[in-house]
# Entry
Amino acid sequence: MTECIQINPLKQRYITYFPAEGTAKTQLDEIEKTLGIRLPETFRDICVFYSSGFLGGISHFAIPGDCEPNIKGETLRLRGSIGLPSRFIMLAEPLESLWMDAANWADRALASPAGARKTYGAFFEVLLTEEEEERR
# Structure
């Protein structure tokens, strides 16, 4: 059973602390084309208001390609340097902390050694909750 994540409440919680600075659909389409993957729906939905930055104790790579470092560039770099399988997308550093498995799924997997989430939306919700707790 897939977790049901409501994006609007996440957005409202997020913009309490950060400006809504999303990533354009055309930029997400370009990431998919270049990396040869399909981004999960909750990732695309969250990208409407989130484009990168420090959240929940993790510094995330930029999603748009016009900022460095970004998920497309870092994923390509690691595919070339360490043979990162093509189904993975690097989202943050350190490298072992955050990657997304984009193979053969609509919106099912986000993984890191610390724990896996069924969707990017569920992972984002955990980070947002951590951010809220840090600010209390």
The CA atoms of residues 35 and 76 lie 7 Å apart.
